[in-house]
Amino acid sequence: MSAERPINADVEPADPPAPKPERRRQPIPGALKAIAALVAIAIAFIVAAVVGAGGDSESEPAPGTAPAPAESEPSEAAATGSAEQLGYPAFATNNTTRVGGSAPASNAAAVALAVFPSTTPGQQPTAVTLVDEDDWAGAIAASVFMSAPVRAPVLVSNGAGLPEVTEEVLGVLDPQGGEATGGAGLIAVGDVAAPGGKAIRVKAGGGAASAGAVAALRDRLFDDDPAHIVIAPLDRPELAMPAAAWAARSGDPVLFAAGDELPKPTVAALQRHPDVPVYVLGPSSAISSQAVRAISKLGNEVHRASGEDPVANAIAFARYADGDFGWNVNDPGHGFVLARDDDPLTAAAAAPLSASGTWGPLLLTDDATDLPAPLREYFLDVKPGYTTNPTRAFYNHVWVIGDQEAIDVNQQAQVDELAELARIGGGG
Question: Which residue has the higher pLDDT, 82 or 329?
Fold first, then answer.
């Protein structure tokens, strides 16, 4: 084995690195300052980190900017306060970055800006997908539009209106439409507000009906058959969440089943693609063997990727591989997205991070403070290492989604330690 090759082994985490010198932040462009004022302070920092450029040096500091250091030696309490204002470690560590919204709408807005900074026309998305906050299944299915050729991030609507943060971020993203959408800049799933410009309307009745309608539009906009189809549990949204990340990454549609039942919209979508392999996400307690047999009778080859609980199910899907289907993340050098398992809409909000940057699967935690043991073991299993040259190693990076009520800084620190590149052996 090459001394420069990262080593995938269960090793004790390395000692934390020495603190790095403070970096000078660039001011936030004026258009984004308005958004920063509407969302949690961690989101202001992510906008600053991704977009930070331009602005008048005499202008007011952006929300969350640390004050100039005092001349006298700061007390421990003052140092802690300054760290919190800077956003470290709650915003970012060596190996993690937080999108710290308190609700899916603000998280979706921040993720969209992280992926599409929109300071130039070339950084803007051609389209944006609007989903209703009460239709989590339709939102997970609509994550498929983040895949090429559409590349539309999900934003959240509250029915007939738009949350202020969604309205503001739409103004910054300013989607103008493209060839794949026939010039439409908005894809509206269900009866949601779609202000200004040309929009494609998806008639969605919620749940499986929304997913079926999204799959039909996906066939039209993508102009080809899907390579695979994912069927997720309708009655267990926490088990369905990982499907959003895969749909965004792959362009595979997500449909739904519940127990023994195959809803009519799911059957109709499968009948359009009888030769496309189907992958059932979740255990037989959520989608039964009887439902799997019913899918097979429609002509589809069926496989299952599953774990018995949300944490194990997400890990199993991250590890899964069958030909060209699946993340197959069983070694170091990957991106990951980490969210709580109790808000399925967050999976759709975060999905663009799985289809850009460090492309990686969605993992779930079921606790705000402590990392679940199976997730700790998984992170150890894919922990990066090196013997002599860390600059030639592979690295892991984890996006943490939600504020500290969802995943607090203690758990983020645990994740950072597990993702840290570790020196292995005694090479000089």
Answer: 329
